[in-house]
Write a structure and sequence with these properties.
The structure holds 3 protein chains of 3 kinds. Chain A contains 6 helices and 5 strands, in the order ββαββαβαααα. By secondary structure, chain A is of the alpha+beta class. A 5-stranded mixed beta sheet of chain A has the order 2-1-5-3-4, with helices on both faces. In chain A, helix 3 crosses helix 4, helix 3 packs across helix 6 and helix 4 crosses helix 5. Chain B has 21 helices and 24 strands. In chain B, 30% of the residues lie in helices and 19% in strands. The chains are: A alpha+beta, B alpha+beta, C mainly alpha. At the A-C interface, strand 4, helix 4 and helix 5 of A face strand 4 of C.
Chain lengths: 151, 653, 198
């Protein structure tokens, strides 16, 4: 049995420690906000926070995440999260929306570590989050706006 | 899916013809047969008529919520918000109370008015076909609210106003919200004639209204097909061959069935499906399958070998696609000649949400959950596979995580697989068919590989003196029910659009096309032919301008003298991009790529493609995706695509 | 009195004899000593050639890069693009541990994993070095993490991230010679004086 602490709640799961955290979240805990885009840590749709750090749940094994504090898009909160999500909504960043849970989780991590990111910082920090609809320009704008709101 | 409406005209399909195509392509046939509203009519101001009973398109709750029942599929393009805007404008709703949900698959009520009795989204037709209809819905509903209030308050309807969800009678001071009147209003007779607001009175249309799905998509609550759960659901992944056209020769499922969570292994037309109690188990089960393949009918050539065949074809005489003046003669006398070869790869759509759908078979029919773009087709193919009547198939449309053409497959390949899996397990459990990213990228239905050879001459004045153009491509419409409308004299329009109908005035022009054959399945990909022709045409024009010593914008405007609308678009874009201004030190070349939509829908400068290396932005219309797979970071690192320095054969990888 | 001198002389002979014997063992006298030294040096050099081949294998070299790791047997740029960051462990949402599990390789996602996954320190940039320069860099305590020769052997023998090179998971080619053989080569190289080609 593996104990996962997700969004502040503890869950005992009868799963293999090798099961990617993504599938434990989606298929066992029914937390479907975190998405499957590639399964190989290349697209960023699966980003969650583990002990406050962004992590790609498709590549982190359930055994690795056991006992740590996991936060998904459904449970993320705080000043930075609020600012990011509000900026995302104000600017209507989303189009199809499938990548956006991961974008937002990565952006929260970026802003938590860097309160005033430059465009280059955003490029580097958001590098691993792909958007096939091409919302990158608005993502960048929203991160800048969230940064301003947090000042 | 980009259907050139100019090529489609109304005709009646005879019953015999319909029965002849009783295969899974019948769906496509239905679509092809019933496209009934020609583009020319639209351009002349004719308006497709449809049902505008508000009860069909609106749910108004006691809580004042105004829910649009959207006949079109939302895959990120914003159509749900767009349709809702039209309704809300005429209705007089408070935008903050507006929601949307997807309509059930009923082609009588929710059809695309440009396609006839077919429920489908695509070809840039959603707003065009709904423009009048949705406003009529809102206007009719407004009249019904007024009628209900008039009856309730015993006052004249002419004295009643509706604004932001409130119905009021000034003289008596009576007011009621939509919620309070909804029950009565929605039961009132639907007016047969409605007056629409003049543009000067618009409060929502033409403004930027907040997207209706932004909140859900930023909170993780938006529901895609991948997120649907049905009791007892099994997840299925399919092992498909590495070569297109290969078939299962032998199957050893023993090891796969040993994998924890795997419940069954069944063979379907495209390969072998593994069913399990969760997604990860199904993926692991598939890895344990042992399958050998019969490749005797498969495409075994490599990309390089296929390209060699393209080059060989290009050397011969192709089918004439366009011919005017004397291109050959012009070239003989040209002062300068520019020759180039362009190659384009097979291109996957790769929407962020890999294809997936769910089916639940019951005694009286089957229910499907899917990010469904062509409901009428999916309904038909599912029915055929399961041996049911189309009306026994209920489709629940969910938000789609992108499409770019992939979900608009008239062969409904993924729905066929879904139904086949369900049939193979005798419908004993709901099935979630899941494509992994590898399945998606290797799964075919690509934008075809294309080769262009272009030879253009300039006279001593720097004008185009002759343009010879050869295209080799795999036709998309040939061999499908669309063939009768989209293929003329053997020329598949998807291979040549953007070239044969170029707005640039080229007097001596010849275009020929060669059809390459391959078992690699191909499909329209956002903007279809323009996905390659735009790049070729614009690059050639850029290089010709260079050769002629002219500014590329001025060169183009010279060629657009007979196309005032295109010229106006070009002027606006260059003005917005600051073309002609000095670039800051250390910045790269600016470039401007414009392609022309073949549709009546106006090009929007809103879609920007900023290159931070240059001050100017390169703008391209939403319907164009020249290099869609290049992410912003790659754009940042590489040189901006620019007017070439010297004419040279170029290969686009 | 004659007995005491004889006893002392005998003792001296025995002691000198013992010392001589020891000297012969530890410091081969004359030509036999320089032969062993020469053999040690040649063996060390030969061992180094094989060690260098390991260090230049993608499993090692991919992370001994200036700013961004390489990936796979194809040594392509790492996808998604990641950078070193101030602590060699990446930056922000793209830190190494965000995808590379401490507990080991992830066979589902094909992401390799090992404890303290990171880019090698900047002092250990091996890309583009000649075999000789690589050798000189490896034995220099100022560049090799202040490691003595013994510590260097211990690092190659016992560090789990180094050891990962031999157990990279099903999608990657492991270092082609056995780990035990590699450690032996390190010992031979060290014993022979850490010889470096020019």
């Amino acid at each position: 049995m593996i104990t996962l602490n997700v969004n502040g709640r503890s869950h005992e799961l009868d799963v293999s420690p090798e099961m990617p955290l993504l599938w434990a979240l989606r298929d066992r805990l029914n937390l479907t906000g975190t998405k499957f885009g590639c399964g190989h840590a290349m697209c960023g749709a699966c980003v969650v926070h583990i002990d406050g750090q962004a992590a790609r749940s498709c590549s982190i094994m359930t055994g690795e995440a056991a006992g740590k504090s996991i936060t998904t898009i459904e449970g993320v909160s705080g000043k930075v999260a609020d600012a990011v999500i509000q900026a995302w909504q104000r600017l209507d960043v989303v189009q199809c929306g499938y990548c956006q849970s991961g974008q937002i989780m990565s952006a929260i991590t970026l802003l938590t570590g860097n309160a005033k990111p430059t465009d280059d910082d955003i490029d580097v920090g958001m590098e691993g989050n792909i958007c096939r609809c091409g919302t990158y320009a608005r993502i960048r704008q929203a991160i800048h706006e969230a940064a301003k709101a947090l000042v | 899916m980009r259907v050139n409406l100019a090529k489609l005209h109304a005709f009646d399909s005879s019953r015999r013809e319909f029965l002849k195509s009783a295969t899974v392509t019948a769906g496509a046939f239905v679509l092809g047969a019933h496209v009934s509203f020609p583009k020319e009519a639209l351009a002349q101001g004719a308006v497709p008529q449809g049902v505008f009973d508000p009860n069909v398109f609106l749910n108004i709750g006691a809580d004042n919520s105004v829910t649009l029942i959207s006949k079109h599929f939302e895959m990120g393009q914003g159509v749900a918000t767009g349709l809702a805007t039209l309704v809300a404008e005429e209705l007089g709703a408070d935008w903050s109370t507006v929601r949307f949900e997807f309509a059930p698959n009923n082609p009588k009520l929710y059809n695309n008015l440009l396609f006839g009795p077919v429920m489908a989204t695509g070809g840039t037709t959603s707003m065009a076909n709904s423009w009048e209809q949705m406003r009529q819905v809102g206007a009719a509903a407004r009249m019904m609210f007024i009628a209900a209030a008039a009856a309730k308050w015993n006052v004249s309807a002419a004295e009643i106003e509706v604004e932001k969800g409130v119905v009021s009678h000034g003289r008596s001071g009576r007011r009621a919200t939509f919620g309070e009147l909804a029950a009565d209003a929605m039961r009132a007779p639907v007016p047969t004639d409605v007056a629409l607001k003049p543009a000067k009175d618009w409060k929502l249309i033409g403004t930027r209204v907040p997207r209706l799905d932004s909140v859900a998509k930023t909170m993780g609550t938006a529901v895609f097909a991948f997120d649907v759960r049905r009791p007892g659901m099994l997840t299925a992944v399919v092992k498909r061959p590495e070569l297109f056209g290969a078939k299962v020769a032998s199957l050893d499922a023993a090891e796969a069935k040993q994998v924890d969570g795997v419940v069954d292994v069944v063979q379907i037309s495209t390969g072998v499906a593994v069913l399990a109690t969760d997604t990860w188990a199904a993926m692991r089960g598939r890895e344990a399958l042992k399958v050998t393949w019969d490749t005797s009918q498969a495409e075994t050539r490599s990309t390089a070998e296929i390209l060699e065949e393209y080059r060989r074809l290009a050397g011969g005489q192709g089918l004439p696609a366009a011919s005017r003046g004397d291109a050959a003669g012009g070239l003989v006398h040209a002062a300068k000649i520019l020759e180039a070869e362009f190659t384009f790869p097979y291109l996957a759509h790769a929407p962020m949400e890999p294809l997936n759908c769910i089916i639940e078979v019951r005694g009286d029919g089957a229910e499907i959950w899917s990010g469904c773009q062509l409901q009428s087709i999916d309904q038909l193919v599912a029915a055929q596979v399961l041996g049911l009547k189309p009306e026994q198939i209920k489709i629940n449309t969910l938000l789609g995580g992108g499409s770019f053409g992939r979900r608009g497959n008239p062969l409904a390949d993924w729905t066929v697989e879904l139904a086949e899996v369900a049939k193979a397990i005798k419908g004993r459990a709901p099935v979630h068919l899941v494509w992994t990213r590898e399945d998606d990228l290797k799964g075919g239905f690509y934008r075809p590989m294309v080769l262009h050879r272009v030879k253009v001459g300039l006279d001593s004045k720097g004008s185009i003196a002759g343009w010879q153009h050869t295209i080799v491509s795999q036709p998309i419409f040939v061999g499908t029910p669309f063939e009768r409308t989209a293929v003329k004299n053997g020329v598949d329009h998807s291979s040549v659009e953007g070239v044969v109908d170029t707005p640039y005035a080229i007097a001596d022009f010849s275009v020929d096309v060669h059809d390459a054959k391959s078992a690699v399945p191909v499909l329209w990909w956002r903007s279809v032919g323009h996905s390659h022709t735009a790049h070729v045409m614009e690059t050639m024009i850029d290089e010709l301008a260079q050769l002629a010593g002219q500014d590329p914008v001025a060169f183009r405007l010279g060629l657009l003298a007979q196309q005032p609308r295109d010229a106006a678009v070009l002027r606006l874009a260059t003005q917005k991009a600051g073309w002609g201004g000095a670039l800051p030190r250390g910045r790269g070349e600016a470039s401007l790529i414009i392609t022309r939509s073949t549709h009546a829908s106006p090009w929007s400068p809103k879609s920007r493609w900023p290159d931070r290396r240059s001050k100017s932005t390169a703008s391209s219309p939403p319907s164009t995706a020249v290099w869609p797979s290049i992410r912003m970071s790659s754009l940042r690192k590489s040189r901006a695509p620019s007017a070439s320095r010297s004419p040279r054969p170029c290969a686009i990888k | 009195m004659k007995n005491e001198r004889t006893d002392a002389r005998t003792a001296t002979v025995i002691i000198v004899g013992l010392l001589s014997a020891t000297a012969v063992m530890l410091w081969p006298s004359g030509s036999s000593q320089s032969q062993t030294q020469a053999a040690g040096h040649a063996e060390s050099l030969a061992a180094w050639e094989k060690i260098a081949a390991v260090l230049q294998h993608p499993r090692c070299l991919n992370c001994h890069q200036p700013d961004s790791p390489l990936q796979g047997d194809m040594r392509r740029p790492h996808i998604p693009h990641v950078v070193r960051g101030p602590d060699n462990h990446g930056v922000g949402a793209m830190r190494c541990g965000n995808c590379h599990n401490e507990m080991g390789n992830n066979v589902t996602s094909r992401t390799p994993g090992a404890p303290h996954w990171a880019l090698a320190p900047v002092s250990m940039l091996w890309q583009g070095l000649s075999v000789g320069d690589l050798c000189r860099m490896l034995k220099d305590p100022a560049l090799n993490g202040k490691r003595s020769p013994e510590a260097l052997i211990e690092h190659m023998a016992g560090d789990p991230l180094v050891g990962w090179g031999w157990n990279p998971g099903p999608a990657l080619e492991p270092v082609p010679i056995p780990h035990t053989a590699f450690v032996e080569l390190m010992k031979v190289w060290v014993a022979g004086g850490m010889a470096c080609p020019t």
